[in-house]
Amino acid sequence: MDLDPYGWPRAGALDVRQLPTAVGAQGVAPLADSLDRIHEYQRRLYAGRRYGVLLVVQGLDAAGKDSLIRTLARALDPAAFRAHAFARPLGEEVRHDFLWRVWRHLPERGEVVAFNRSHYEAVLAERLWPTGDIGVDWRGRYRAINEFEGHLHREGTRLLKVWLNTSEDEQRRRLLKRLDKPRKRWKFDPSDMDSWRARDRYLALVNETLTATHTDHAPWHLIPNDDKPSARARVAGLLADLLESLAPEYPREDIDCIEHYRALLRGEED
User: What is the reported pTM?
Assistant: First the structure.
């Protein structure tokens, strides 16, 4: 299949079930190298305080969203990094518009924030398992998301959106691993089986959602995900490239000011 740089088919409608889920690591920078770059360029981003970065990680249950974010977090200064996981809206969240619960978790300028699931649950999980009033205008929500992300881009927040594309066999293997390994059983929730049973319907909504919200300022990157190390390296490389493009250098210094205070500290000025 002929794919563009984002992992999308160059011809025909998107069907994530037909896209690669396992590819080699050729052409992908080693994970360690990308983590080193993330560490350096996040410091420059934080020093400059001009842009914020929002990493949106979407995928099926057991796609490895948590472990991906933990891997990236090894390279990120916690002073300028936060992660937030979105579950189905409850209580106060249901009583507000669907984007209300997202605003408080957005990055400041200089920050990197990772969303484990995101506002996209409002057109995916909530569409399969509604939590509020029926009769929602789903296409209206797509428009609202695009306008929301456009506003963020104009105000200095850059979005990196990734879909972790996992095969049916690999998802089954990972769900079984949660049941078979005692140290992983805490991660299993009966709702995982709801998603498993609804896999085909869910992926049909994924196709519609990604297509409707793949924009120039906030494109979706489709990541083959059956091999976790390769997937992590790909996402780390994307994040490193984005950070470098936003903050290639530290803020420009005022040399006269630096020399003045250097002289004071050396006792060369009264």
Answer: 0.91
